[in-house]
Design brief:
Number of strands: 2
Strand order of the largest sheet: 1-2
Helix content: 55-70%
Order of helices and strands: EHHEH
Distance between the termini: 91 Å
Number of helices: 3
Radius of gyration: 21 Å
Length: about 100
């Protein structure tokens, strides 16, 4: 019988976490926090781009992070909307 002790199995197809998805989530949360200071739009747009790119990568390859990408997209959109709402409220307060 042959020996199996020299059998080397490599796992080249490891499932990897997508870094763009994690960046989208962090930027999305940061955009909601910075929406009070007017920076939420800029950070939110960057987070939205990372989220969409990460979601595309996850769907095309064997990676995990789809939930993080979707959460990052939603948080980025909320951060953008909060910034716009706060800007309108501040603008109305300054006019009156």
């Amino acid at each position: 019988m042959g020996k199996l002790s020299n059998l080397d199995v490599s796992y080249d197809s490891e499932i990897k976490n997508n870094k763009k998805c994690m960046a989208a989530l962090i930027l999305g949360i940061f955009s909601m926090i910075t929406s009070l200071f007017g920076l939420g739009v800029i950070v939110g747009i960057i987070g939205l781009i990372f989220g969409l790119l990460g979601l595309k990568d996850v769907n095309q390859s064997n990676q995990i992070g789809k939930g993080k990408a979707i959460a990052g997209i939603i948080c980025s959109l909320i951060g953008i909307l909060l910034t716009v709402m706060f800007s309108i409220m501040v603008g109305n307060a300054l006019v009156n």
